[in-house]
Amino acid sequence: MKKYLFFILVISFISIQAQDSRIPVDTTVVTNSEVVINGQKITYKATTGMQPVWDDHGEIIASLYYTYYKRTNIKSSPERPIIMSFNGGPGSASVWMHIAYTGPKVLRIDDEGYPIQPYGVKDNPNSILDVADIVYINPVNTGYSRPVVKKGEKLDKSLFFGINADIKYLAGWLNTFISRNNRWQSPKYIIGESYGGTRVMGLAAELQNRQWMYLNGVIMVSPADYKVLRTGSVLSSSLNLPYFTAAAWYHKMLPEELQNKDLLEILPLSEQYAINELIPAMAKGGFISDTERNKIAERMSYFSGIKKNVILQHNLDVPKDYFWKELLRDENGFTIGRLDSRYKGLDKKLAGDSPDYNSEITSWLHSFTPAINYYIREHLNFKTDVTYNVFGPVRPWDNRNDNVREGLRQAMAQNPYLKVLIQSGYYDGATTYFNAKYTMWQTDPSGRMKDRFYFKGYRSGHMMYLRSEDLKKSNDDLRDFIKNSSSKGKAAKY
Q: What is the reported pTM?
C-alpha cells in the first residue's frame, strides 16, 4: 500500500541516559495510509514518536513512545471516540494489541495464531479504526520509552515501577496527549490487556479525580486482578477449576459425558460447582472429612481431566503450573501453554511439576518481535538505534496499596456515562476467564451498576485476537460496546 511521509518534526534532542543510545524526547513522524475495514475504505494518518513525562516541578523525567491513528476520510467531529491502549506485564510494550488486534495492521500468522515466514504485517480488515481513533502507549522501559536521567544522577525507580506510580505518571501523560491533539470533546475509552487491566482500572479513577478527564468506557482484555491472582488463597485456587475444564475439553481429556457436549454447555456446570461446593469444601482445609475430601477430589477430576489420586496428593489444591505439565503427561507427553493452553510444548523429561518453558509465549515472540521492528521502521518511518523492548526492565515492581478495583467502582458511581467491558479467552491459564468474571462481580458489591458491566468470552487464550475467528468477533464486540456506551445526547445523571 502506497504511503507518504508527511513531515518529521523534531522539537528537542535531550539525551536519555537509560542506555548508551540517544533518542529525542519530543518528536513526531507522520505518515498517511489506507485500509479496507468491513468493506469500507478508511484513510488515516499515523503519528508516531516521543512525548515527554514531566514531574511536579516541570522537569522532564521520561519520554514515552506512542503511535496515534486518526481516520481522515470523515468530517472532523467532537463525537468521534478516541481509545487509549495499553498492554500489560508490567514491563510489556504496547505491541500485542497494536499489530494483532485493534490497529490497521496485523501480523502475518495462520488462522490459529501460529507464526509463519516471511514475518511481517498485513492489512487488518477488522480494525476498529472505522469507528474510533486509537493511540498505543508504551510505559517507561517498554518499546522505545525511557526515563530521562541527568548525567551523574541515579534513576529513581519509585517514579515509574509500581501500581500507583505507573497510574499517576501515565494519567499526566494522557492529559498532555489529549490537549496536544485537541481531543477534550471526544468520547474517551481506555483499554488494557493483562496487567493493563489493573492499570486501566486505576487510571479510570486517576484520570477522573486528578486530571478531570471523564471516560465513557473502560475495556479490560484478559485482566489481571492481584486481589485474587497469586494470593495462594482457597478462593484463588477454586476459581481455576472452570479454566481446567476448558483446557481439558479442548485437548479431549474430559469424561465422555462432558466431552460430547459443547464447551459453553459444560462451563456453567464447572462454574457452579466451583462457587457452590469447591470453595466451601476447600475452606475447611485439613479438617475436611475423608469422605468429603474423596468426593470433592472425584468431582474435581471429573471437571479437570486430572486423576483423582493426583488431586488428593495436592490436598485438593492443584497448582496451575502442575496442571500444564500433568494434563497430557500420560496421553502424549506434551505440556500445554500458560497464556493459551491450546499450544503444546515439549519438555526434556516427562517427570516434573511444571513445564520447561511457556510454549505459547515463545511462539508469539517468534512472530511479534521481527514484525514490530519492521513495521515501525519501514511503515511508520520511525528510525532509531535504541532497542525496542518487547519486555523491558521494570523490576522490582511495587504492588502495595492496590486499590484499583475500588477506584473503578468510585469512578463509575461518580460518572453515570462510564461502562465496562471485559474480554477473556476460555483457554487462558494465566488470567483466567472465571477470575475476570469474579473481578466484575466484586467491583460493585451493591449490584446497582451491574447493568453497566459486559463480559465476552472467546474460544482462544490470553490474546484471543490471534485466532482469526475471534479477531473479527472481539473487534465487533468493541464496536458494539462503543455504540452502547455513547451518551446519545443524554445528560450524565441518575
A: 0.94
